[in-house]
């Protein structure tokens, strides 16, 4: 029996925000090359998008989607210095890439209005997880058996 003063834990301030854009993104494996600097967009920080900046290292099979992917290196190292990701998860950091700019703008248009009142919050939208095999997986691509 619970003590009389027990209350349920508070509801999280931010529920995961659906990401209808990344899973439907039509970007080819050839769009990225070894050496490219990219970002995996993960949420909102203040009035802009944020994510993990990485460098493309080499082509690699992305097991969760059974498609070509890229081996990425996180320059900050940490527990997961190298991961494999699908091309549709990546956005070039250089501003001269029209395809990536279009995707970035669409993500801004989709997310920034949702969090306009939380200008000092860092919000992780919870779209990605990393498997035990070092595979970055978007929740829309996750398969129970992998």
Helical residues, percent: under 10%
Number of β-strand runs? 8
Low-confidence stretches: 6-13
Q: Look at the structure and give the mean pLDDT.
A: 86
What form results from the Cα inertia axes?
globular
Pairing-aware structural class of the strands and helices? Answer: mainly beta
**Major sheet, described briefly?**
6 strands, antiparallel
Task: Give the quaternary arrangement of the chains.
Answer: single chain
Report the portion of residues in β strands: 25-35%
Terminus-to-terminus distance: 39 Å
The helix count comes to 1
* N-to-C SSE string, H for helix and E for strand: EEEEEHEEE
Specify Rg, calculated over alpha carbons: 17 Å
Written overview of the protein:
The chain is mainly β. About 10% of the residues lie in helices and about 35% in strands. The chain contains one helix and eight strands. The strands form two sheets. Strands 1, 2, 3, 4, 5 and 6 form a six-stranded antiparallel sheet that branches. A hairpin with a 2-residue loop joins strand 1 and strand 2. It starts with about 35 loop residues before the first strand and ends in an 8-residue tail after the last strand.
Question: Topology, pairings included?
Answer:
Blueprint: E1 37-45, E2 48-62, E3 67-73, E4 82-86, E5 90-92, H1 98-111, E6 122-124, E7 128-130, E8 136-138
Antiparallel strand pairs: 1-2, 1-5, 1-6, 2-3, 3-4, 7-8
């Amino acid at each position: 029996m619970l003590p009389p003063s027990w209350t349920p834990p508070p509801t999280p301030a931010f529920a995961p925000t659906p990401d209808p854009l990344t899973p439907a993104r039509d970007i080819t494996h050839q769009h990225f090359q070894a050496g490219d600097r990219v970002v995996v967009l993960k949420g909102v920080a203040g009035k802009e998008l944020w994510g993990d900046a990485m460098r493309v290292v080499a082509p690699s099979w992305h097991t969760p989607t059974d498609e070509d992917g890229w081996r990425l290196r996180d320059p900050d190292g940490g527990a997961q210095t190298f991961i494999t990701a699908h091309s549709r998860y990546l956005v070039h950091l250089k501003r001269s890439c029209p395809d990536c700019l279009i995707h970035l703008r669409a993500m801004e248009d989709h997310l920034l209005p949702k969090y306009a009142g939380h200008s000092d919050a860092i919000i992780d939208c919870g779209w990605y997880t990393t498997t035990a095999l070092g595979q970055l997986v978007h929740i829309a691509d996750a398969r129970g058996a992998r």
